Amino acid sequence: MMEAIPLRSTRGGLRSAGLVVLLLAGLALLPRLFAGREASRVGQNAPDFRLSIAANGGEFGGDGASVGLSDLRGRAALLVFWATWCMPCRAEAPVINEVFRRWHDRNVVVLGINTDEPGQGDPRAFALERGLAYPILRDDSAEALHAYDVEALPTLVVVSTLGKIVAIRTGVTGDDEIDRLIRQAL
Amino acid sequence: MIERVGRDQAKVVLWTLGLWGSVQLAGLIFAHSQSGGLAVEAVIAEMGAGYVGIAWSDPEAPIPRWTAIARRAGSGAGLGVAMAALMVVVGLAAHTAIVVAAPAALVTLALGFGLAALGAVRDELLLRGMVLRATRSLPAWGGLLVCGAAAAAARFGLDGVLSLAMAADAARGIAFGALWRRDRGAWMPWGANTAWTWATGPASHGGVIDVRFAAEPVADAPTLALLAIGALAASIWALRDHGPKK
């Protein structure tokens, strides 16, 4: 499959080298053509919201206090829209927890935004049961859900230190991809 | 003969770039879903590479049994995990990493494995299989070097900046290219790539243990040195007695 075929002419060697250079240039440049065009909202200012804290609110004044995105200016933020009834969200929760553990002391805020209807689920109990350590906010009036046009769960929104949306991901996202997006946000 | 080789090389290079552009477009269309995007990219790579004859096993050899395929992928996975473990050991010895106990997170491990496996299909077929085919007029070591350069170029395309991570990717590209030559197919390098990505990602980020690096895990000096040694060793292993058929 990969036999070496000796070159017998300088012309052939130059052409071969030229094709290798073309190949490498294409591999480097093609992804740049598509970079930063992933979604119309990417690059825009992240809409502000203010929500009450359901669990793990120690950093923001304790559970029951409220926190807004504008309070976090200067820090990168990972917003995770989820619900207790959403199976992919339940699968993703441990991944987000590990991301939180890796990044929370590196100028990054991880916020779980629970979108359960009132009486539908108990995000605080879910966090306790699963050992989740990142702050969970309640969006029972769908304020943040509508502000970010979230159509499916789970949805991740990565916000830069300047308050711009860096990336939006729907469905389960791997932790290496989340790490990469957070580095872009810092 | 030379003309035929040149035409074949040009065709493979253009086809590779077409496929590479297609997976970027798929990534854009499926930007909202990493798992969906990776699945589509893997299908594009598999179909496109298959069209120009890039096979998972040597087409000139008898069709392998599943046990042989499992052995090839498993041995590659063993190499990938071993390299990842060495990276942690070197990090600990150089005091650039610490290990923190973590509760086993099976969901994290399973999800991470699936994503790593899909990404490895795309990268092995396009960045190694196609590249080795496009460089088969070069000496074997030349093809491996181009595999390294291709991996670094792809990293630059992703990040848009020159970085030490490019050097790390180049070393991995050479090592995986060497496994292609050793295996005469994709199963061993696919196993190694999947295992490396999984072991350095979800498995060591809280899935089994939690390794915390002082710098980026794959871009500090001890890790780069380890990857360079690994790439050299893999190249020697691949080229010593499994060189190109005459």
Any overview of this molecule?
The complex is a heterodimer of chains A (186) and B (246). Chain A has two domains: 9-37; 50-185, 3-Layer(aba) Sandwich (Glutaredoxin). Chain A starts with 9 loop residues before the first helix and ends with a helix. Helices cover 35% and strands 20% of the residues of chain A. Chain A has 186 residues and is an alpha/beta fold. Chain A has helices spanning 10-34, 87-103, 123-130, 143-147, 175-185; strands spanning 50-55, 66-68, 76-82, 108-114, 136-138, 155-159, 165-170. Chain A has a seven-stranded mixed sheet. Chain B has one domain (2-241). In chain B, 72% of the residues lie in helices and 4% in strands. In chain B, strands 1-2 form a two-stranded antiparallel sheet. Chain B is mainly alpha-helical. The longest helix of chain B is centred in the middle third of the chain and has 29 residues, at 106-134. Chain B is built from eight helices and two strands; from the N terminus they run H-H-H-E-H-H-H-H-E-H. Classes of the chains: A alpha/beta (186), B mainly alpha (246). Chains A and B meet through helix 1, helix 2, strand 7 and helix 5 of A and helix 1, helix 2, helix 4 and helix 5 of B.
Number of domains of chain B: 1
- Uncertain segments of chain B: none
- Rg calc of chain B: 18 Å
- Summarize the main sheet of chain A: 7 strands, mixed
Instruction: State the helicity of chain B in percent bands.
Output: over 70%
**Gap from first CA to last CA of chain B:** 16 Å
- SSE string of chain A, helices as H and strands as E: HEEEHEHEHEEH
| Order of strands in the sheet with most strands of chain A | 2-1-5-4-3-6-7
Low-confidence stretches of chain A: none
- Could you state the CATH homologous superfamily of the largest domain in chain A? Glutaredoxin
Count of DSSP-assigned helices of chain A: 5
CATH topology of the largest domain in chain A: Glutaredoxin
User: Cα distance, first to last residue of chain A?
Assistant: 45 Å
Q: Summarize the biggest pleated sheet of chain B.
A: 2 strands, antiparallel
- What are the secondary-structure elements of chain B, in order, as H or E? HHHEHHHHEH
Strand order of the largest sheet of chain B: 1-2
Average pLDDT figure of chain B: 86
